[in-house]
Amino acid sequence: MSEQQHSAEHIREWVSDIHELLERQRLVEQLVAREESADERSSIVENMVHKQHLVALSAKLEKIHPADVARILEMLPRKDRLIVWDLVKSDMDGEVLLETSDAVRESLIQAMDTQELVAATEQLDVDEIADLAADLPDEAVQGIYKTLNAEEREQVRIAMSYPDHAVGARMDFEMVNVREDVSVEVVLRYLRILKELPDHTDQLFVVDRDERLRGVLPLSSLLVSQPEAEVGQIMQSSARFFVVDGDMQEAAEAFERYDLITAPVVDKQGVVLGRLVVDEMVHFIKERQELEQLSQGGLREEEDIFAPLSNSLKNRAPWLGVNLVTALVASSVIGMFEGTIEKLVALAALMPIVAGMGGNVGNQTITMIVRALANNPLSSADVRNLYIKEVSLALINGLMWGTALALITFVMYKDLQLGGVMMLAVTLNFLLAAVMAVSIPIMRARMGRDPALGSSVMITAITDSGGFFIFLGLATLFLLH
Question: Which residues in the chain land under pLDDT 50?
Fold first, then answer.
């Protein structure tokens, strides 16, 4: 069993245990409430049992990693979530908040007062405080600033000054810089004084007296070099680095391409401001994947599955409205050919097949195009080649699967012409799906919009209406004349 499977199984067990403890607590409360005379003794019993359950819950949570506590909170209904959240140790609050989804984090923050929010950040690094500060009330942010020294406040200000997609918003300020004119022995003595290196440190950053990047010194090279050797002699001068206002998507691709663990972040003058770390890259990639999945379904933001009804309605309503309009269009298309369907009832059974297969082709194509746009902008030549490839693929698939459906249609209805119409309709709808699946995300990207947002909804609407129109139009043209 893999680590991930092992962890997921344990989380399900913990959630089950927590549900059981909470149910016991509610049962005791109900039994005491049913007593005709709620005397002092029953009140004492209730308090004792209540405390016993809370102590058991608190002890269980204390042994669980903050990331797993976050997962547990996301799997609990809001009422139970807040009960469990109150039992989480205060020194874990900040780490748990960082690990929860945006929607769940919002509900937890709303349940905390300013003092609790300030206390939650005491165990966090500066870059983590900057990540969390954007979601906190202004009073809490001001309180957090008062607990930081001048350097830390400036670092938080710098991190928060960049948009979320910029490298500067995700950089870590904990790093080790060394000069190129010092010896290996001096560097090793310096590291021993530090006693502990920042997490994921695989290399030191070599800078000049103005803190400009000169290269990197891998720890592996440092450990095997002669003590008297100078850093400048053994460092790697061609270091991978990122500019502070660069794009995080490009940085994430570079981390994956070059198997990076850490990399320096510099300003336009080459001064080292911080570093990017592989675990932040993993978080970013996960966020992008989740956002892409939501966008394709027409959801603009992550939704807490236990969110209030009004929140869910607000999040889902816009594209449901679009769906309603497109469904009415599809219905009107069918209405245009009502006479054709009455004369040939088999069309009613066959037309969903044409529309459904076209939608599948469109969604396959649009997924590939959105992924390509996420990785890099497409030139005019790239777009032209994509059109040629996808149209060719749709034509081949349309002829192949259309022929298969034509044979099935002939076997079912003993009508050769109907089979031919089926093949032609499937092929044409595949071609329509391919062209629109390339066009929709590219047009949205060029307009500065998210190419994934609602793309699945739009392509399904087009292939449904288009598929009905093509199939019923061909049937009217070839079967009824």
Answer: 1-6, 36-37
Q: What is the C-alpha R_g of the chain?
A: 30
Where is 254: in which H helix or E strand?
A: helix 248-258
| Residue 202 burial (C-beta neighbours within 10 Å; 0-12, 13-18, 19+) | middle
- What is the domain range of residue 66? 3-167
- The Cα 262–Cα 330 span in angstroms is 53
Q: What is the 3-state secondary structure (H, E, C) of 12-26?
A: HHHHHHHHHHHHHHH
Give φ, ψ of 272 to 5 degrees: -75, 120
Same domain, 131 and 227: no
Q: Which two tokens stand for residue 223?
A: 């450990």
Alpha carbons 359 and 433: distance in angstroms, whole number: 7
* Calpha distance 42→24 (Å, rounded): 16
Q: Which residue has the tokens 């269980």?
A: 60
Q: Which two tokens stand for residue 293?
A: 């999945």
CA-CA-CA-CA torsion sign (308, 116, 196, 150): positive
Together in a domain, 341 and 464? yes
- The number of folded domains in the chain is 3
What are residue 206's phi and psi, to 5 degrees?
A: -95, 125
Residue that terminates a domain, selected from 103, 137, 167: 167
370: which residues sit within 8 A by CB, 6+ positions away?
292, 296, 441, 451, 452, 455
Using alpha carbons, select from 302, 298, 289, 285 the residue that is nearest to residue 326. Answer: 298
Give the model's pLDDT for residue 84.
87
Please state, in angstroms and rounded to a whole number, the distance separating the CA atoms of residues 419 and 398: 14
pLDDT for 77 equals 84
Neighbours of 21 (CB within 10 A): 19
CB 416 within 8 A of CB 410: yes
Strand order in the sheet with 203-207: 177-179, 203-207, 213-218
pLDDT for 4 equals: 44
Residue 254 belongs to a domain with what CATH number? 3.10.580.10
CA dihedral 254, 256, 261, 266 (to 10 degrees): 10
Q: Do 253 and 274 meet the contact criterion of CB atoms below 8 Å apart?
A: no
The residues pairing with 274 across neighbouring beta strands, listed in sequence order, are 265
Tokens of 184: 């290996």
Cβ contact 429:463 at 8 Å: yes
Residue 479: Cβ within 10 Å count: 17
Say yes or no: 156 and 231 in one domain. no
pLDDT in tens, 405-453: 999 999 999 999 999 999 999 999 999 999 999 999 898 888 877 787 7
